[in-house]
Amino acid sequence: YCKDGQVFRESTGTDERKEAEQRLKLRVGTIASGSFHGLAVEKTPIEELLDDVLLDYRVNCKAVRFAANAIDNHLRPYLEGRRAANLTTTDVHRYVEFRRSCDQGMRTYRGRLTEAKLIPIRPASNATINRELALLKHAFYMGWRSTPRKVTGIPHIPLLKEDNVRKGFFEHDQFLAMRRALPEHLRPVLTFGYYTGCRRGEILALRWEQVDLAERNVRLEAGDTKNDEARILPLTEELFQVLSMQRSIRDAKHPGCPWVFFTDAGEPI
Length: 269
Hints:
269 residues, mainly alpha, three-stranded antiparallel β-sheet, two-stranded antiparallel ribbon, 7 strands, 46% helix, elongated
């Protein structure tokens, strides 16, 4: 059959003439309706779409570390070898069921700063699964908008209900008790989090180039924040003292360490 002057040759997968003719009619129907964009589109693997998401995150300086973790350790292993055109909402529901299960075994994790190692995969929360599904939906959206198109449509990918209500607060006496119980190198991390409300990832990603002790502030980069917006954090007196001590320890023991918070060996936490 032909489309826009281009000849397409496709196996019907059968030796029965009537069945082959029926499949030909169905293909001609998709061409007439404008829903056929070529065999290459129908064969696009989901992994290619996920690779495009990571490329987009790198190009636009987004939080690529989170995306890489979700894609390489969860979405890609589960969807490996599947075509984008064949993904259904039922497949999405099965992925959700799988991520919630306790029987996910061990998986190879290749961190950006660590050697490859096996880690246990624990049941994921609705919020975590939703972040992964959002990446999958974004992958199909990019494939639909790309030139030439890589998918013929975007499947329905429903998100889960999240319980975002915070229960209880971290009182000051609890903060002090926890800080006393922590190893020495983790106490500054807890103190920074307690006084700023920053997320763990934001704190552990801090580099000295973002800290201005003279002006007593810390600059959070756009790609590291939850809403992808840069912001300036003024330092309270206690935080100023904590970061000044961190700088002194870094200069004395690990002068080449770029991280604000580090292990006793000068490595990122």
